[in-house]
């Protein structure tokens, strides 16, 4: 960066004034936020915006993850999960019946989830009807769960593989029961990065086009950003601005839009970029905060606990995030990239995590209808001071006192 | 409990100092069926009031200021000139002495001594050494003087060539009377009935002074006339406008010296009868005001700390702690975070305490019990040496089969073979050895030091409030015992760390009291190098549910500790329990140390917490948080150039 550019960079205080006045931030503002040494000031500002929008309300859902195939033609250097060919050791492709069985086994001991989230590899060996059948089977066997399936990268691949337009793909899948799209596959949009980490899948324009079409068809979607590998802060800001611009268009279209933005921290274990160190807690929180401030037309910023660890996600609820995703019930993509990533949390764990952060847990469905608002009065952690004479908080296991 | 008993009106719990000069104010309360009276040392009386075990107390004013937010009644122990029972004595002029032995039982007198001596010595430095009263008198020699308080001090001045009566000294310097102690308690505790009861006790007690004096003199074979004179002329009991001004002056002087929190007394007096006209009391400071004050170097009372802990915005609290961290840093190092290359070795898991929060220990005779052999230890120590390590942290269970000679042999062998620093044996273990060997703690520490012990870790502090300790670790030492071992260790020249494990049954108030107890001992000894805190790691194998937890609470607690412990140089992040992400974030909430590379830490990892990190990873975390990094030793000297 040259000196002239540096002097043009706004100060943190100047950006804060714009945020408080409700003005839209520029790329330079975004860069200034990423680079400010006033890390706590940044967090406080993002928290201000978050509380202005949502107060203490913090969302979670009861969802279940399903990956039915890890066979994938894409060559993503950051991926520890897929890029296998059919027949290779470890390659798994479930039949529709197996997928339903797996799903039932995963949810046997829980209340029926409200969302099933399916993400797959780009498998060249399956017919398009596989996906339609899968959706119909999901609707039949798990009718209470909203179907949030296939990233824009998959939709784009289906179009190419089966010689359809993305719109045709989406229409056929919607007819088969698809209700919304997850936000995966966005990675980093900027071609300087995208060509280095995933040169053979949907480009930024193609990814955004799929979401534009989905929104036009009335399907709500999410958006992500995989950060902490070879990109710069400028690339992250560019990514956020492209999403913000698309969201403006979708909102103007009046049908559907992006609901949540989910920054995903790159994990280096077991993939083609394992020489990289991965992100740190402060970078994770800074990214959440800047996202909250830049994406003024996104309702929700999600601290995805699988990506950042539950503890960092918890403090993320003070750095701009208002959602922690869901119970997940076994996720395999991150768990393949990190020995530390947990596979699932119980609903009570999520509720506790949110309460300990001093927030109000709100169970939502996929499109943020409120299913259950937990009472604030039940707050048990952080700052509630108990009457020590009552001794009610003395919950001792094993022996009676 | 019988039905009758539970229907009884609860008795009001009153605590008072058990000195002669307090007797007139406490007159008859011991026979009052509605009163539960406790008499004890000033420190114990203060503790009872702080921990809610007394409703009101005749409490030394420094203790009251440290608790904070208390109401005062206009009755107390006052000197309008020479007090006779609070004196500094020495063989040399007080301007020349270099060390002062303190009777540690009264902080008010200790602070008054510091203020008055400092005013007379033009800031010439003076070392303070806390010890029991009898030892304080005995240690007066050459350039060491002593502060003696209470009954042992009366007329002591005549036995030494140089003496300063602190009541007289304060009067001479300020023209005001000095209030040593006053009735204090939470405002709601002072019901009109209680106020009347206390006034009545004083009315009768003042009349009965001669009886009290004679009884006291007779019991000790002393001259009754001198005792009568003391109660009549040296001590006064009414706190009027002049006394109130004296108290304001003392609190101001002490706050300026950083010895007591700023205390606003204007609205603290219990008014009986028609309320005095004039302006209402000033509004209490806002939490932001309190943060401003502490950033300017002011000291926090327990009540103020609790308000900050509960009410302050997370970021405002972090910014204040970050500011204090920078101010505490040595010159040119305000952006430096340190870490140490050492290894935690748990020499035995056999333990007799059965703490409910511990998944590591095995009882005596259990098949999984171990004592590390020299071979295993040797391998571990060689790895530390090979990794450029500078010390080991040696801690273990309370194993009754290991005698002091075992430790001495081990230490000599480690020193001779590996030359590593020995940071070992928490107060609990030292106390265990002392009890096992029937030796005084000081003797145990002296012998272990001779064998090679360099410093003492601050483990086992948990929460230094006995209510909590009794629930989570019944067999463990009391708070006073833990602090006592640390006091002795510091007096012998050991440095130590201080810790807090919260998140079991502890309340926010109890965590604050824990911090205050550490701060008070640190005022006495200056022996703590650093403070670390973490929450109880609930896992399989522990036998107690988690209490208050969460990342926000961890960061708030650590930041609060940075603000309260204004006399402790360093605060360390507990990344081992919180994970590297939160550990790194903690550096922005008051911590200036990353702890240790941690080859292993069996106690926490038994509970499932297994974060590990090598030096390179630590340095990357520290750099990514915007700091330079340096390796350190146990005394926090930099061993590498910060980079």
Give a concise summary.
The complex is a heterodimer of chains A (401) and B (643). Chain A is of the alpha/beta class.
Share of helix of chain A, binned: 40-55%
Helix coverage percent of chain B: 40-55%
Mean pLDDT of chain B: 89
CATH architecture assignment of the largest domain in chain B: Alpha-Beta Barrel
Radius of gyration of chain A: 21 Å
Largest interface: A-B, 38 and 44 residues
Q: Total helix count of chain B?
A: 24
Nearest-angstrom radius of gyration of chain B?
26 Å
Strand content of chain B: 15-25%
* Total number of distinct structural domains of chain A: 2
Largest sheet of chain B: 6 strands, mixed
Overall structural class of chain B, as computed from helix and strand content, comes to alpha/beta
- Cross-sheet strand order for the largest sheet of chain A: 9-1-10-11
Number of domains of chain B: 3
How would you explain this protein's 3D organization?
The complex is a heterodimer of chains A (401) and B (643). Chain A is of the alpha/beta class and 401 residues long. Chain A has 16 helices and eleven strands. In chain A, strand 7, helix 12 and strand 8 (300-301) form a beta-alpha-beta unit. With 643 residues, chain B is of the alpha/beta class. Chain B contains 24 helices and 20 strands. In chain B, strand 17, helix 21 and strand 18 form a beta-alpha-beta unit. The longest helix of chain B has 18 residues, at 508-525. Chain B is globular. At the A-B interface, helix 4, helix 12 and helix 14 of A face helix 13, helix 20, helix 21, helix 22 and helix 24 of B.
């Amino acid at each position: 960066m040259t000196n002239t550019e540096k002097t043009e960079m706004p100060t943190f205080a100047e950006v804060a004034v714009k945020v408080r006045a409700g003005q839209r931030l520029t790329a330079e503002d975004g860069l200034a936020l990423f680079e400010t040494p006033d890390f706590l000031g940044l967090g406080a500002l993002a928290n201000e915006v978050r509380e202005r929008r949502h107060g203490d309300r913090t969302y979670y859902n009861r969802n279940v993850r399903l990956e039915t195939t890890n066979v994938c033609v894409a060559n993503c250097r950051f991926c520890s999960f897929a890029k296998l060919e059919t027949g290779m050791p470890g390659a798994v492709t479930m039949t529709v019946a197996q997928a339903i069985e797996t799903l039932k086994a995963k949810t046997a001991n829980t209340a029926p989830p409200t969302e099933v989230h399916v993400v797959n590899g780009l498998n060249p060996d399956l017919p398009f009807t596989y996906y339609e059948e899968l959706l119909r089977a999901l609707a039949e066997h798990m009718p209470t769960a909203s179907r949030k399936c296939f990233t824009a990268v998959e939709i784009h691949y289906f179009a190419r593989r089966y010689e359809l337009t993305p719109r045709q793909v989406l229409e056929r899948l919607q007819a088969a029961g698809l209700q919304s799209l997850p936000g995966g596959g966005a990675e980093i949009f900027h071609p300087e990065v995208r060509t280095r980490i995933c040169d053979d899948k949907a480009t930024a324009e193609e990814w955004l086009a799929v979401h534009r079409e989905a929104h036009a068809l009335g399907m709500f979607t999410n958006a992500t950003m995989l950060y902490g590998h070879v990109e710069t802060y400028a690339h992250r800001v560019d990514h956020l601005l492209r999403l913000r611009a698309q969201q403006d268009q979708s909102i103007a279209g009046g049908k559907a839009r992006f609901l949540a933005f989910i920054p995903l921290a790159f994990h280096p274990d077991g993939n083609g970029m394992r020489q990289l160190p991965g992100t740190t807690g402060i970078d994770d929180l800074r990214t959440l905060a800047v996202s909250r401030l830049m994406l003024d037309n996104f309702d929700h910023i999600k601290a995805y606990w699988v990506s950042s660890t539950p503890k960092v996600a918890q403090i993320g609820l003070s750095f701009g995030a208002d959602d922690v995703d869901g119970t997940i019930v076994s996720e395999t993509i991150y768990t393949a990239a990190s020995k530390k990533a947990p596979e699932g949390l119980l609903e009570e764990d999520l509720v506790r995590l949110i309460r300990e952060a001093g927030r109000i847990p709100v169970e939502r469905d996929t499109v943020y209808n409120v299913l259950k608002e937990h009472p604030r009065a039940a707050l048990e952690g952080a700052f509630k001071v108990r009457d020590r004479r009552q001794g009610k908080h003395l919950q001792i296991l094993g022996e009676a006192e | 409990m019988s039905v009758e008993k539970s229907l009884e009106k609860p008795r009001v719990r009153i605590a008072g100092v058990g000195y002669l000069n307090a007797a007139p104010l406490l007159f008859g309360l011991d026979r009052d069926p509605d009163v539960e009276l406790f008499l004890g040392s000033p420190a114990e009386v203060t503790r009872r009031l702080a921990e809610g075990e007394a409703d009101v107390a005749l409490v030394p004013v420094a203790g009251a200021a440290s608790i904070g937010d208390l109401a005062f009644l206009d009755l107390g122990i006052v000197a309008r000139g020479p007090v006779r029972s609070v004196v500094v004595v020495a063989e040399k002029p007080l301007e020349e002495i270099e060390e002062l032995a303190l009777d540690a039982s009264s902080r008010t007198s200790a602070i008054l001594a510091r203020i008055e001596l400092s005013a007379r010595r033009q800031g010439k430095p003076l070392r303070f050494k806390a010890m029991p009263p009898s030892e304080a008198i005995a240690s007066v020699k050459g350039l060491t003087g002593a502060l003696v308080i209470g009954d042992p001090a009366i007329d002591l001045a005549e036995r030494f060539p140089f003496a300063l009566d602190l009541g007289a000294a304060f009067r001479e310097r300020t023209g005001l009377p000095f209030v040593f102690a006053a009735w204090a308690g939470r405002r709601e505790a002072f019901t009109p009935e209680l106020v009347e009861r206390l006034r009545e006790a004083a009315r009768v007690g003042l009349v009965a002074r001669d009886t009290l004096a004679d009884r006291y003199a007779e019991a000790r074979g002393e001259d009754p006339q001198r005792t009568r004179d003391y109660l009549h002329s040296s001590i006064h009991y009414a706190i009027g406008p002049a006394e109130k001004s004296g108290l304001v002056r003392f609190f101001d002087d002490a706050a300026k010296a950083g010895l007591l929190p700023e205390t606003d007394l204007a609205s603290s007096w219990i008014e009986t009868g028609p309320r005095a006209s004039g302006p209402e009391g000033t509004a209490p400071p806002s939490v932001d005001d309190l943060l401003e004050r502490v950033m300017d170097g002011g000291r926090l009372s327990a009540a103020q700390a609790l308000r900050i802990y509960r009410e302050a915005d997370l970021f405002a609290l972090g910014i204040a702690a970050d500011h204090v961290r920078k101010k505490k840093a040595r010159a040119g190092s305000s952006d430096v975070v340190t870490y140490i290359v050492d290894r935690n070795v748990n020499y035995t898991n056999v333990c007799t305490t059965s703490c409910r929060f511990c998944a590591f220990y095995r009882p005596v005779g259990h098949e999984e019990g171990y004592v590390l052999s020299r071979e295993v230890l040797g391998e571990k120590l060689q790895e530390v040496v090979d990794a450029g390590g500078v010390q080991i942290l040696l801690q273990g269970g309370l194993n009754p089969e290991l005698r002091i000679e075992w430790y001495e042999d081990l230490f000599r062998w480690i020193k001779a073979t590996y030359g590593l620093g020995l940071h070992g044996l928490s107060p609990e273990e030292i106390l265990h050895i002392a009890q096992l060997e029937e030796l005084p703690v000081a003797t145990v520490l002296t012998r272990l030091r001779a064998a090679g012990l360099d410093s003492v870790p601050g483990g086992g502090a948990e929460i230094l409030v006995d209510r909590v300790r009794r629930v989570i670790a019944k067999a463990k030492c009391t708070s006073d015992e833990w602090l006592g071992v640390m006091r002795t260790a510091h007096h012998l020249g050991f440095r130590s760390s201080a810790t807090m494990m919260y998140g079991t049954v502890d309340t926010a108030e109890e965590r604050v009291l824990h911090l205050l107890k550490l701060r008070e001992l640190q005022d006495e000894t200056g022996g703590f190098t650093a403070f670390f805190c973490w929450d109880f790691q609930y896992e399989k194998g522990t036998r107690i549910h988690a209490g208050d937890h969460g990342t926000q609470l961890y960061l708030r607690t650590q930041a609060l500790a940075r603000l309260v412990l204004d006399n402790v140089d360093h605060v360390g992040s507990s990344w081992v329990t919180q994970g590297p992400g939160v550990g790194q974030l903690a550096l922005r909430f008051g911590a200036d140390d990353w702890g240790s590379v941690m080859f292993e830490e069996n106690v926490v990892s038994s509970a499932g917490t297994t974060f590990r990190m090598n030096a390179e990873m630590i340095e990357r975390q520290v750099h990514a948080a915007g700091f330079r990094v340096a390796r350190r030793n146990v005394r926090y000297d930099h061993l590498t150039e910060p980079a």
